[in-house]
Amino acid sequence: MRYIEPHGHMVSRTTDDYESMALAGCAAICEPAFWAGFDRKSADGFYDYFCQLTRHEPKRAAKYGIPHYSWLCINPKEAEDLGLAREVMALIPQFLQAPNVLGIGEIGLNKNTRNELKILEAHIDLAVQHHQLILVHTPHLEDKRKGTRLIVDALKSHGKVKPERVIIDHVEEHTFREVVEQGFWAGITLYPESKASPQRAVDMLETISSQNVWLNSACDWGHSDPLAVPKAALEMRRRGHSVEVVDRLIYQNPLQFLSQCAKFKDPGVIA
Amino acid sequence: MALHALSTIDSVRTKEQVADMHFMEARSKLLELAAFLDRVERATGAPDYRIKGLQSALPLLLKGGTERVATILHHWSDPTINPADKAETKVASGVWSGIK
Question: Is residue A264 in a domain?
Fold first, then answer.
């Protein structure tokens, strides 16, 4: 089995996790910029973080033969301070030429506030200006439905966003359909408690859509599982889905989306 | 855009096959829920809106159909449509606090 982990916060994970993922067939990892669990106090902290994502983390992953890619932004959890958010966003363009940067993400909303929305719109504009892919985080739990609708509205009202170049992540049963029906890609995040289980994820693939969707673990410093994607693959195999169908979902689908950025190389093709 | 789900495997899967695969897990989770509600009942203090929200979703399990998860998630969702003026917290609780 081979798979792409399209959303993992590896700076929060141990080296043992890289080894486990490599043993499970992980062929590439993509790491969106994320909240550290506390608010950074200055743009300098983000500069260091972007250096970590673009220079240091690819070296860690390479020790296990895994190509590492990243996405850059200021996370919506830190978007309430508009001044800091704009300072951080001003740092991003200098990193966009790094060989492992795929786009802007994970932008989005957390508590669906006006300031978060302003910074989301600014990120969308930055992505369009620099012809970047967009990875969107949708809010947690009771805030997800409202936030997803605000995000879709913001993306559509921009006017220059190509939906096929945007993935809206963390969809669940009540948001998946409206995301893909609008032409966006959808990400299903596999979390032990707060998002989808492998079983629910496969239910969604069987009943809503298996196209324009990827599965990810979004493993980070919280309760999460870096092997969630292969566990969903196992669930698909237990239900009788073929090896080819599993490969399409956990390898070819993310490859199709990510290949819209020329920097992403098919890890199945030997250079 | 037209949506294409995985396959028609569900329609050829028997109820017995689904039960063979997932019944014990579902049984275990139902008992965990029952134990949780018992634990809450034994505890002191004022009622918690999250528990109330969880209990209010239980009848939705018995309504039939194939959209139970989406129905419950909608039930727990914030129904307002305008952005909030300010974030009072960074975290979500799992149940909209205004559920009646």
Answer: no
pLDDT (tens digit per residue) in B61-73: 999 999 999 999 9
CB-based contact, A224 to chain B, within 8 Å: no
Q: What residues in B contact A172, CB-CB < 8 Å?
A: 69, 73
Q: Is the pTM of this model over 0.90?
A: yes
Which residues of chain B have a CB within 8 Å of the CB of A199? 22, 25
Nearest CB among A111, A146, A239 relative to B77 is that of A146
Confidence of residue A10 (pLDDT cuts 50, 70, 90): very high
Q: Kindly state whether residue B36 falls inside one of the protein's structural domains.
A: yes
CA distance B95 to A141: 7
CB contact under 8 A, B93 and A142: yes
The answer to whether residue A120 scores a pLDDT higher than 90 is yes
B positions 81-100 inside 8 Å of A (CB): 81, 83-96
pLDDT digits (tens, 9 = 90+) for A151-198: 999 999 999 999 999 999 999 999 999 999 999 999 999 999 999 999
Asked whether residue A269 is assigned to any structural domain, the reply reads no
Q: Where does residue A14 rank: exposed (0-12), middle (13-18), buried (19+ CB within 10 A)?
A: exposed
Alpha-carbon distances, residue A208 vs A3, A17, B66 (angstroms): 22, 31, 12
What is the residue range of B29's domain? 13-45
| Residue A271 is assigned to a structural domain of this protein | no
- Inspect the interface and report whether the beta carbons of B90 and A149 lie closer than 8 Å: no
Number of compact structural domains in chain B = 2
Same structural domain, B35 and B58: no
Q: Residue B93, exposed/middle/buried by CB under 10 A (0-12, 13-18, 19+)?
A: middle
User: What's the domain range around A141?
Assistant: 3-258
Q: Domains in chain A: how many in total?
A: 1
- pLDDT of residue B8 exceeding 70: no
Domain-located, residue B87: no
A207-252 pLDDT, tens digit per residue, is 999 999 999 999 999 999 999 999 999 999 999 999 999 999 999 9
Task: Provide the 10 A C-beta neighbour count for residue B28.
Answer: 10
Interface touch B77/A245, C-beta < 8 Å = no
Q: What is the CATH number of the domain that holds A51?
A: 3.20.20.140
CB atoms within 10 A of CB B41: 8
Q: Examine residue A263 and state whether it is found in any structural domain, yes or no.
A: no
